[in-house]
Amino acid sequence: MEDESVVKVYDSKKQSLLDRIHNGEFMKIQAPMVRFSRLPFRLLCSRWGTDITYTPMIMAAEFNRSEHARDSDFTTNDLDSPMIVQFGANDAEELSAATEKVINHCQGIDINCGCPQKWVMKEGYGANLLLHPDRIFDMVKTVKRRMNIPVSIKIRIQPDLNNTIELVKRAESMGVSWITVHGRTSSMRSSHPVDYEAIKLVKETVSCPVFANGDIFTLDQANEIKERTKVNGVMAARGLLMNPALFQGYKRTPEECVLDFIDLYSKYGDLHPVILHRHLMYMLYDYHNRNEKSEFNKIKTVTGMIDYIQDKFIFS
Ligand SMILES: Cc1cc2nc3c(=O)[nH]c(=O)nc-3n(C[C@H](O)[C@H](O)[C@H](O)COP(=O)(O)O)c2cc1C
């Protein structure tokens, strides 16, 4: 019986995210990004205008089996909300088990159905699921039946849009809470234009909320896409890496935002120094000329990076 299989009731804070979306609040969302969308970056985006953040893709099977994977892949705290845990999964039991482990620490889970990387596709995850949609439906249906938590999917469009339309209709009938559409096919590079008309078609097809993803680098673009597609929210990845305050209308990362990032990193860690360096390279992109870029590139230590930022923005 369905009632018996509801293993946990989620709290009112989680309920309110779905309520907010259904009440018509337009959501500005930080995309899942492997290695990058970890705790300090999620907190930074939340502070600077993002309504929902996503963890990087976490492989459900490994997460279930290895305590080490759980410790290294997932760190959170009370400020980290509303936050969605994105799983790489292709099996309903694995996804359910992984969801149970995070259900009290997030406001929803998402299934990655769009990653086109070779190894991900080969193992039957990410965009490979678009070729085996029954696996997606089974995962959505099973987790929704067993647990009271929003379950969303993040997809890419398919070369034949009829397949996308069929997929989103069935996902909706399985109870998916919302659908994020990256308006490129799996074989398209990030330089390929995004098909916003396809996203609009998805929005017109289903009644569940739809979020648009792809090539959002400014607030104006976000608003334009909102008008054009009538979606419930927009999700940005590279735009937020370059400027975590983009949804507040800033044209480049504000100095205080870079300092906030250093502060959050100092408090919570959870980033490999190489990734900290990459984050700072992105945020400082518009501040640096070519020489400064190569000067910053030479810095290898965390203290070196922090000193550099403080010299640039506090003591200069
Ligand atoms: C560094 C990086 C890591 C990414 N990791 C993930 C991921 O873990 N899960 C996922 O669904 N998409 C991932 N993506 C794809 C983004 O979420 C997004 O769909 C894509 O970059 C298009 O959005 P954009 O044009 O705003 O960058 C990643 C993208 C980047 C740039």
From TrEMBL:
SUPFAM superfamilies: FMN-linked oxidoreductases (SSF51395). Gene3D superfamilies: Aldolase class I. Residues 30-297 form the DUS-like FMN-binding domain. One of its GO terms (molecular function) is tRNA-dihydrouridine20a synthase activity. Its cofactor is FMN. It comes from the Eukaryota. Pfam families: Dus. Its EC number is 1.3.1.-. The active site is at C115. One of its GO terms (biological process) is mRNA processing. FMN binds at P32, M33, V34, Q86, K154, H182, A237, R238. Keywords: Flavoprotein, FMN, mRNA processing, NAD, NADP, Nucleotide-binding, Oxidoreductase, tRNA processing. Catalyzes the synthesis of dihydrouridine, a modified base found in the D-loop of most tRNAs. Belongs to the dus family. This is tRNA-dihydrouridine synthase.
